[in-house]
Design brief:
Elements: H1 9-23, H2 27-30, H3 35-40, H4 47-50, H5 53-61, E1 66-71, H6 83-86, E2 95-100, H7 106-114, E3 124-129, H8 141-147, H9 150-157, H10 164-174, H11 183-191, H12 203-216, H13 239-252, H14 263-270, H15 288-302, E4 305-310, H16 315-320, H17 325-341, E5 345-348, H18 368-382
Length: about 375
């Protein structure tokens, strides 16, 4: 080989590998996501779990082992009563599989689940609804850009059994966001009453995204939020014993204030590092209600067995910052009504917004609140 070409050899090799990678079919890579991948990602809360179809595809094909729990930032809090930690082979027939992070509101979760539409019939799922989602503005463009997956949107519109009416509703809603990818496809879908022509992304792009997702699923460099958290109750503890321990745990970790807010978070409030003004929350006319209805209608039409869980906020703290019960209760009631009117069943916890140790800060379920949920979802798992 010429001495002049030798320094460029690594570049040639890298280029050749890249070209081979681009040309290989995605089917060569999808086998990388297997049962072991599911076990390793049960509580990883990575983008590969939330935004990539492969892991959720596999999850719904092995649903007898796992119980998917969709939600938002409450899932990643280091709480020993989180169902991924507290539930075990002695008190639960399945393992919890967590899917969610901060900003995963109704539309984000709706697209995730709708992308699995054809596999949802009869599948048991929990979906946690947070009342602070129901703001003046609803899902923002920033959160849309960060949370929404082109691959999942594409897969959603390719679900064979999903009605044209639902596809039209999703197309119209997605068009409201500034940086949505293929506006022409969405406009045509909306105009043609949900009948799709072509794909949201090209076959080539779908092929590349799928391969990248498969490879990334094997290389999780993100620290798992719950990996260091250990159970604080014995494996054979009853639900009443777990509630007692959770109460004691909450009391021990919230000694600094009268609102039963965990001490670490209270320090941030006192240091003005957490927001005090939440006047934009609890809007009875929030666009979030339409997104919740779209999700609930999708699950009902798909035949999924969803346990909706409506959680409260810390009522004592919200009273203190000027958002009183008279403003909160109509929103709680409308969340409940929206789910039920769409054929869903709901575990409504909003009557517990003044109960100590149900909420660990201003808005996040935890401690005793998680134990209530743990017991309820195990009942749902066993329910025929």
């Amino acid at each position: 080989m010429s001495k002049k070409l030798k320094p460029f050899l690594p570049i040639f090799i890298s280029g050749a590998i890249f070209i081979i990678f681009v040309l290989l079919p995605s089917s060569w890579f999808t086998g990388l996501v297997n049962k072991k991948t599911l076990a390793e990602n049960r509580m990883s809360l990575t983008d590969q779990v939330m935004k990539g179809p492969l892991i959720q595809d596999k999850l719904f094909h092995h649903n007898k082992q796992y119980y998917p729990i969709y939600g938002s930032s409450e899932l990643e809090k280091d709480d020993p009563f989180n169902p991924a930690i507290a539930l075990n082979k002695h008190n639960s027939p399945r393992q919890a599989f967590l899917i969610g992070t901060g900003g995963n509101t109704d539309l984000v979760n709706g697209v995730e689940l709708a992308s699995q539409y054809d596999d949802l019939k009869g599948k048991k799922i929990a979906f946690i609804i947070s009342p602070q989602w129901f703001t003046n503005h609803g899902l923002t463009n920033v959160n849309f850009d960060a949370r929404m997956s082109q691959n999942q949107i594409n897969q959603m519109f390719n679900q064979k059994n999903m009605s044209d009416e639902l596809k039209q509703r999703y197309a119209k809603r997605l068009l409201q966001f500034k940086n949505v990818h293929n506006k022409e496809f969405l406009r045509e879908t909306a105009k043609n009453q949900g009948k799709t022509d072509g794909n949201y992304i090209s076959g080539f792009k779908e092929n590349q995204l799928t391969k990248i997702e498969a490879i990334k699923s094997l290389m999780n460099f993100k620290k798992v939020p719950l990996e260091h958290v250990k159970p604080v109750t014995s494996e054979d503890a009853s639900w009443s014993e777990m509630r007692d321990v959770a109460t004691q745990y909450g009391e021990a970790h919230s000694k600094s204030n009268q609102y039963h807010i965990r001490d670490k978070y209270w320090k941030l409030i006192k240091a003005h590092k957490r927001r005090m003004n939440r006047d934009y929350e609890f809007n009875i006319n929030s666009p979030e209600f339409a997104d919740l209805k779209l999700l609930a209608d999708t699950m009902h039409e798909a035949g999924a067995d969803v346990e909706y869980i409506s959680i409260p906020v810390n009522g004592k703290w919200y009273d203190n910052i000027g958002i009183d019960k008279d403003k909160r209760q109509p929103v709680y009631d409308k969340i409940h009504r929206t789910v039920v009117d769409s054929g869903g069943k709901i575990y409504d916890m909003t009557d517990k917004d003044y109960e100590p140790y149900v909420i660990t800060d201003a808005v996040h379920i935890g401690w005793k609140g998680w134990v209530y949920i743990d017991e309820h979802i195990v009942y749902h798992m066993k329910e025929k």
